[in-house]
Amino acid sequence: MNSFTEWLTGTSLSQLIQTTSWAIPGIQTVHIICLAALFVSALMVAMRVLGRSWHEHSDGQVAARFMPVIWTCLAILLLTGALLISAEPGRTLFNTVFYIKVTLIVLAVTLTLIINGAARRGTIGGVHRVMAVTSMLLWACTIVAGRYIAYN
Fold first, then answer.
1. Per-domain residue ranges for the chain?
2. What is the pLDDT of residues 2-48, one digit of tens each?
3. How many CA atoms lie within 13 A of 100 on its CB side?
4. Of the candidates 116, 21, 111, 6, which has an alpha carbon nearest to the alpha carbon of residue 64?
5. What is the pTM assigned to this prediction?
6. Is 73 exposed, middle or buried (0-12, 13-18, 19+ CB in 10 A)?
7. Distance between CA atoms of 46 and 62, rounded to whole angstroms?
8. DSSP of the chain, one letter per residue?
9. Could you tell me the maximum CA-CA distance found in the chain, to the nearest angstrom?
10. Among residues 102, 79, 108, which one has the least CA distance to residue 13?
């Protein structure tokens, strides 16, 4: 892992990000804005699944409205996250919290996919409501883990 992080730190992309004063704050800003948009969109779907909002729309309509935002934001988050890792790979890749965050993301995305599928089919049940609450907790923990990485 040491040789990989040394190689990555020495790449021209990493060097560019490290030496451009606005690069890391700019990338972090886009990352945080997309995270907020993803979280709110997932929250809207979860609230509909829980019967707490969007009463005039079906589960499928709400999922169809917000899932494109979730996937677009997730793609941007993966890109900006990769850029942030490339800027400081040693700090990130040797941090246990980073791997916890990745695990939380995989679990949250999995639940989001399951909920989305059930919402589009109109087959939301009790287990999906539990998944909706769990997914929101996972997304919130992802945010906390991401912030913790910055200070760990």
1. 2-151
2. 889 889 888 999 999 999 999 999 999 999 999 999 999 999 999 99
3. 14
4. 116
5. 0.88
6. buried
7. 10
8. -HHHHHHHHHSHHHHHHHH-TTHHHHHHHHHHHHHHHHHHHHHHHHHHHTTSS-TTS-HHHHHHHHHHHHHHHHHHHHHHHHHHHHHSHHHHHT-HHHHHHHHHHHHHHHHHHHHHHHHHHT---HHHHHHHHHHHHHHHHHHHHHHHHHH-
9. 56
10. 79
Residue type, 87: A
Q: How many angstroms separate the CA atoms of 114 and 105, rounded?
A: 14
The number of helix segments (H) and strand segments (E) in the chain equals 7, 0
* Cα–Cα distance, 32 to 71 (Å, whole number): 15
In the block, tokens 């997730």 appear at: 74
Amino acid at 9: T
DSSP of 106-143, one letter per residue? HHHHHHHHHHHHHHHHT---HHHHHHHHHHHHHHHHHH
Query: pLDDT tens across 111-125, in order?
Result: 998 998 898 898 999
